[in-house]
Amino acid sequence: MQKIKTLLREGDQLQKTKPSPIESDSFKALKKESVYSRKNPFPAEVLKNINLNGRGAVKETRHLELSLKGSGLDYKPGDVIGIYPENDPVLVDMILKEAKWDPEEMIILSNERQTVSIREALLTYYDLRPITKSIMKKAAALTSNMKLQQFVSRENDSKSKEYIKGRDLLDLIHDFGPFNLDDFVSILRRMPPRLYSIASSLAANPDEVHLTIGAVRYEAHDRLRKGVCSTMCAERIMPGDKLLVFVQENKHFGLPEDPNTPIIMVGPGTGIAPFRSFLQEREIVGAVGKSWLFFGDQHFATDFLYQTEWEKYIKNGTLSRMDIAFSRDTKDKIYVQDRMLEQSKQLFEWLQDGAFFYICGDKDRMAKDVHETIITIIGKEGSMSREKAEEYLNDMKNRKRYQLDVY
Ligand SMILES: Cc1cc2nc3c(=O)[nH]c(=O)nc-3n(C[C@H](O)[C@H](O)[C@H](O)COP(=O)(O)OP(=O)(O)OC[C@H]3O[C@@H](n4cnc5c(N)ncnc54)[C@H](O)[C@@H]3O)c2cc1C
Ligand SMILES: NC(=O)c1ccc[n+]([C@@H]2O[C@H](COP(=O)([O-])OP(=O)(O)OC[C@H]3O[C@@H](n4cnc5c(N)ncnc54)[C@H](OP(=O)(O)O)[C@@H]3O)[C@@H](O)[C@H]2O)c1
Hints:
binds flavin-adenine dinucleotide, binds NADP nicotinamide-adenine-dinucleotide phosphate, Elongation Factor Tu (Ef-tu), domain 3, CATH 1.20.990.10
């Protein structure tokens, strides 16, 4: 794995440009203490990179520990880290071969500040991920390939929509190439950073930040596809390497100010990450508020992420209770919301006592179902209509007692 690339160090210059409007006031306050930001990422040394899943697991979830020493970067439980990844060299070399481009040919990057070899640019600067309709249209304008031009025509809208599913630049070049190198590079997008929920407390781990990263791998169109950042971390990052990172404040997800407040945390899979941070923080400040964690994943034997840490927290009282749901150990799947329903009376009592309720992890299925379940529980245990139960939850939301960090 190559260490930090010069290309992404352009932040030194970019730092002088206007801050993006999405940066919040308190984020700016953080920046006062640190010169490092989204536009000027910090090269954080990797201290640890281990697989949390046991032998035989279908999944690979990496636990990364990074050093923030000397960065002046600060974070609180609930915040996220941005990582600027590099593309897989195997994919880059396949693209170069397919396109018949000379890897050493020099090109001017779209920021017009640097001239680098095309191989270097594809590794570190450009986004090679799933293509979009817009890229298809731009590519069609670069070639006389009638097949591609017909593909992007309005009559073929549904065909091109279908085509882009699960395909990347290698497919585009293979199916519709050749393309002129300089023209092709002009239509590429810059690699975006990937965000990860912070899994540590700074108070408990001075100068460090920990992350929980699930490797994204899937088969599409007869080729194994790999998520850029997650598989870079899983396959090519070793202790001693450096990752370009920044801290992004999460104003809408964090511990209650009063450490006496009870908290209920629902975090299956990688959704567990911020709750490790919450509990580390609560342990170190000696919070007396009760805490309840719901965790789920595929198998107890291989996928019980951070199991020994939860056991320690249960023992020392940092965690008041924990419910687990392993979906693939039984004939019928058991999910975190099934455990919530089993405990609906106590769960509602906690809410009545002012507990904050948190959900982190999969947005499309889990978070929706857990949301529905909490409405069901409020309705049942509070003898309320669905409308009233939704009002109850909305009121919690308005008081920041119902918080989501889903992706
Ligand atoms: C606020 C926030 C917090 C997050 N926290 C975490 C965290 O703590 N841990 C964590 O692991 N992730 C987290 N994520 C997700 C993370 O940011 C990345 O999206 C994830 O790691 C994938 O990035 P990648 O570069 O590996 O994959 P990419 O190269 O970005 O590829 C992902 C894309 O591949 C496609 N894809 C994925 N699976 C399939 C499939 N089966 N079939 C077809 N296409 C598919 C989809 O288009 C998907 O968007 C978080 C996201 C956000 C927004
Ligand atoms: N946008 C992205 O690029 C990106 C990248 C990475 C991950 N993600 C999302 O993040 C999620 C987290 O991934 P992960 O691998 O850590 O965990 P996960 O896939 O969410 O799996 C964790 C546990 O949740 C279970 N589950 C599945 N559907 C559920 C539901 N409707 N309600 C409750 N639990 C449910 C799973 O069971 P079963 O699997 O046995 O059904 C498993 O036991 C992924 O599902 C994915 O959607 C998105």
